[in-house]
Amino acid sequence: MRSGEVGNRGSPSPLRATFQHLPGVGEKIETHLWEAGIHDWSDLAKREEFPGMSAGHLAQIRDELQFSEEALRTGNAAYFAGTVPSREHWRMYPDFRERTAFLDIETTSFSPSYGVVTCVTVHGGGTTRTLVQGEDLEELGSVLRPFALLVTFNGSQFDVPFLAAHFPELQFPPVHVDLRWVFQRQGLRGGLKSIERQLQLGDRAGVEGIDGLEAIHLWYQHCRGVKGALERLVAYNRADTVNLEVLMEHAVTEMLRRW
């Protein structure tokens, strides 16, 4: 289906092809719009009538589309975070690619009640930075501040609530895409490393065999002064995070192919 072009890669803009952020439009009506050849906000803005919609409803939608166009033009991701259904937040990635932060954390426990955050890697905007407990982890808020979109794997269940429990003042990017659920929609299940193996994507050179449990051991080894333990932990955390970008690109491409 046709959609707009965005970004320096000429990527399609699936955000412009969704209408579920408009008043009174859900999945069913959106499907009717697509079937009628309306695949972009500009297509709908030109319509004076549409079967099943009153003139007043269409006028309301056209007004709302002006706000949508302005929000996209100015890069106001928060506007779409509050209007586009969360399961469709993947659609924002091509438009906000350069302001996307890929994030992964390591901890000493699976529960924020008992564990601490040992390190956090943020990858995006042309840089990759790992923040470490006891060194510079308190700078996480300023590192995340420039970003509009957050991408994690299972972050809605683990990374984000864990960080929120330990850093209650932390402000996250307004849009969050959890790749675990995007891949489930594509029939792929399992953890991050399992998905990487299934898709044959990602680079784990130098950190093969390390998992979440080993990451905990590496932290405690570091605390005991074991040479190289922190470096291995950081390398593992960075691999988890950097690989998210490759997976996100694949996930969005696959969603566009199916859509």
Looking at this protein, list some descriptive labels.
259 residues, alpha/beta, DNA polymerase, domain 1, Nucleotidyltransferase, domain 5, 2 domains, five-stranded mixed β-sheet, two-stranded antiparallel ribbon, 11 helices
Largest sheet: 5 strands, mixed
CATH architecture label name of the largest domain: 2-Layer Sandwich
Overall radius of gyration: 21 Å
Overall average pLDDT: 92
Count of helices? 11
CATH homologous superfamily designation of the largest domain: Ribonuclease H-like superfamily/Ribonuclease H
H and E string: EEHHHHHEEEHEHEHHHH
**How many strand units?**
7
Q: Helix share of residues?
A: 40-55%
| Basic shape | elongated
- CATH class of the largest domain, anyone? Alpha Beta
- Derived from helix and strand composition plus strand pairing, the structural class reads alpha/beta
Uncertain ranges: 1-11
What is CATH's topology name of the largest domain?
A: Nucleotidyltransferase, domain 5
Question: How does this model look, in words?
Answer:
With 259 residues, the chain is an alpha/beta fold. The protein has 2 domains: 5-74, Orthogonal Bundle (DNA polymerase, domain 1); 95-258, Ribonuclease H-like superfamily/Ribonuclease H (Nucleotidyltransferase, domain 5, 2-Layer Sandwich), CATH 3.30.420.10. It has 11 helices and 7 strands. It has helices at residues 27-35, 41-45, 55-73, 77-81, 93-96, 140-144, 159-166, 179-185, 192-199, 212-223, 229-258, and strands at 5-6, 11-12, 100-107, 117-124, 127-132, 149-152, 175-178. The protein is elongated. The protein starts with a strand and ends with a helix.
